[in-house]
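Q: Convert this sequence to structure tokens.
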Amino acid sequence: MDRLARHFLHRNPDTMKDAELLELLLRFVVSEPEALARRLLEHYPSLASILEADAEELAAVEGMTPDCVVLLRLVPELQRRYLIARSAPETRLVDSTSFGSYLLPYFYGAKDEIVYLLTLDATGKVLSCRLIGRGSVNSANVPMRRLVQEALSANATAVVLAHNHPSGIALPSQEDIDLTLRLRDALDVMGILLLDHLVIADDDYVSMNDSGYLRRGF
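A:
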């Protein structure tokens, strides 16, 4: 075990530089990890931008191999799965804060707009959390029938809809509002409550319920 590995395992990793951590990761797939780590940090402004880069962009950096690209794209996906796994299925979700804490990890690192439906029983226990669609939140990309069928198949008492704005602005659009009200009314017929629709951007979100959009007569 060399100096970097010992430092990482037996001392405080916070004292290591970004270049050292990147070198330690890359040594598993290339013979000159220090040089490649340096080139990546010259090409990108931060570790975050490296790990968020598209596979095609990464492949264009001198010295990158297919295995390097896979490894760097694997790290954020593992982090996303780790964060999701920490949201215990037995958790009771009862308000917008708990909805947000549970759902945010599903959107970690997402560059495209994605839509999830969270289904709950009468006590707030999670029944399922499923990816419903990609693209803008409208009837074409997220068919109303699909949303209702997912809620029914989970035997849900209540649901929470969530989607992200990759632009980084967590403000509901008119299309978001229209879909929310149509879904609320469709679920009402089935005796299922739409508790909230979260609009997520980066690590922030807006609750459409807290914002008053789910009030009757809106």
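The chain is about 45% helix and 15% strand.
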